[in-house]
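W.,

You were right to be curious about this one. When I first looked at the sequence I had no strong expectations either way, so I just let the prediction run and decided to look at it fresh. Below is the sequence, 368 residues in total, followed by the output.
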Amino acid sequence: MKLGTLLLRNAAIGLTQLEAALRNQVLYGGRLGTNLVELGYIDLELLSAYLAELSGLPIATPTLLDQADAGLIEQLGADDAHRLRAIPLGYLGEGTDTVAVALVEPGDSWVAEQVAAKLSAHVTPYVVPELRALYYLEKLFGLPRRARFVRAGRSAGSNGDLPGERRRTQPAMGMVMPPALTLEPRRRRASSQAPLVGVVPPAISFATACERIDAAGNRDQIAETFTAYAQGRCDAMVVMLIRDGNALGWRAWVAPPAALRKPIEELSLPLGGASSLQSAHDAGQPFVGTPPSAARPIEKQLWATLGTHPEPFAVLVVPVLVKQRAVNLVYAHIVSSPPPNQLVTELGELAARAQASYLRLIRQARGA
């Protein structure tokens, strides 16, 4: 039985709530339980109980996680703990070689085998919700959570919030928009744009990018297609998630010799105030040109993360809309020149196709 089915059967949530969580899972990733907690439909304690019922495994409670064995934590190491989403709790009795380990995916035998090999011990899995695991991975191993997961409930103080997991919100301020561009979505044509000087040749054609987005089986394939398309056409491209009044880094590509200064998933830019991101988000249309704020504080944060120097004169930001709401922003720039019309038109087409693919994936998730 699946988690959603169990929750519906026990009237813990309604069908409309399940559909909303499935939609958010398609758009923002994370496990179904994570999205249910973030939407405020259930709390972490209730989620833990249902995960334990589904798996038949004990729960890794906050008390057990707070008392996790320091020696085992050091032995597993931060990189493997993050990769496997595993937290060793301690030995099950003195003189035994069996370790209790909190796992986000306790039913995955490969994960358990990897942890057992690192700890040189037998492993007894304990179930832990994704949000709680990520909080304790940060607390115990010093692993920063991705910006997408720095939240745990629908509002500050709601049930299920973890310490330090309050939402970051920014006011959405209206502003004067640049003239809207006229795009012709859903039109197929091969790209003839020449490679930029000093940049690698295009990794994929525009037609191939269209086909990949049309056939995408998950959200990651959509984002990865955008960054593959960027190679040879611009100096940098970032695909961002829009959540809680912030643009969160998701996928990025930068042309050498520039390089990311930190993982793009750690980037969080507020959508309050004047910026090219705010303009594209509020209008639901591409922004092309010089950032609207003379100081460009938001763009400067982005450029610092991308290792961009010198600063570009003009930028391009294209929103991906789902039901008239921006769920992604696709940012691109060329340092030496404004974004060419072909790049603007093709990114607008890819954004329209991404919208169609998201809606298809949401329908599939609801029918699963």
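Here's what jumped out at me. Residues 341-367 form the longest helix (27 residues). And, maybe more interesting for your project: The chain has a mean pLDDT of 87.

Coffee later to discuss?

I.
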